[in-house]
Amino acid sequence: MMEQIITSGLLTPVILVGLVLLLAFSFFHVLREYERGVVFFLGRFQTVKGPGLIVVIPMIQQMVKVDLRTVVMDVPSQDVISRDNVSVRVNAVIYFRVVDSQKAIINVEDYLAATSQLAQTTLRSVLGQHELDEMLANREMLNTDIQTILDARSDGWGIKVSDVEIKHVDLNESMIRAIAKQAEAERARRAKVIHASGEMEASEKLVEAASKMASQPNAMLLRYLQTLTEIAGEKSSTIAFPLPMELMDSLFKRSGNSDKKE
């Protein structure tokens, strides 16, 4: 069969038809909804096409695909020295996407690598301006600061940084122990302050009660009887009965007078 085709001279038209079909198919490209094609005409930027079916002339036009979906990039752990000279390891994640395909292809060689490097340097720079307590307590503020800086610096690359999240702030063992001691000392300080406040309130109430009892002499006697009732209820074999100092003074005065008469 093959020999018949060769001898009949039909091989050349078949090859030509195949080449024409291949060339025709190379003209057409299908871009998905989230893809764009940056088209160059003889090396110069021409237009951005897509999505859908687009036509690109081989050897004259070249097309570079760009993905417009949000990229989730993990920033490797960075060694950061805080403003209060504490060494920590911090890693984060950034969310960004291409909003200008032309800038993403023409203005930067590799926008993914460039964004990753920029995120690492910005993370170290921003966190180095804050103390350790701020890193641990004010992550939302730090996330916003880093996102604002990244978005501004990557705008010339056609990149939009939508969010930045600091994932971990790792401390060494000595710093963890120091923070634990600091927290323990803080709790002890609060306990002492609360105890002192309670003593002050109790003293104020005692002064108020003493002034009221002083105005009513029988109130002290009632208080003595109440105290004796409480002691007797505890089944104690020894009862200490307090005596007013005024009564003791009067007894001493009488005993002194009697000694003088004798």
TrEMBL record:
Describe the location of the Band domain by residue ranges.
Answer: 26-183
Q: Which Pfam families match?
A: Band_7
Sorted UniProt keywords = Membrane, Transmembrane, Transmembrane helix
Q: Which GO terms describe its cellular component?
A: plasma membrane; side of membrane
The membrane-topology field of this record reads:
Single-pass membrane protein
The organism's superkingdom is given as Bacteria
What SUPFAM superfamilies is this protein classified in?
Band 7/SPFH domain (SSF117892)
Q: Which residues form a coiled coil?
A: none
Q: Where in the cell is it found?
A: Membrane
Any idea what this protein is called?
A: Band 7 protein
Task: Report whether Transmembrane shows up as a keyword of the record.
Answer: yes
Organism in which the protein naturally occurs: Vibrio sinaloensis DSM 21326
Q: Which family does it belong to?
A: Belongs to the band 7/mec-2 family.
Residues annotated as transmembrane = 6-31
| InterPro entries named in the record | Band-7_stomatin-like, Band_7, Band_7/SPFH_dom_sf, Stomatin_HflK_fam
Taxonomy, top ranks, is: Bacteria, Pseudomonadati, Pseudomonadota, Gammaproteobacteria, Vibrionales
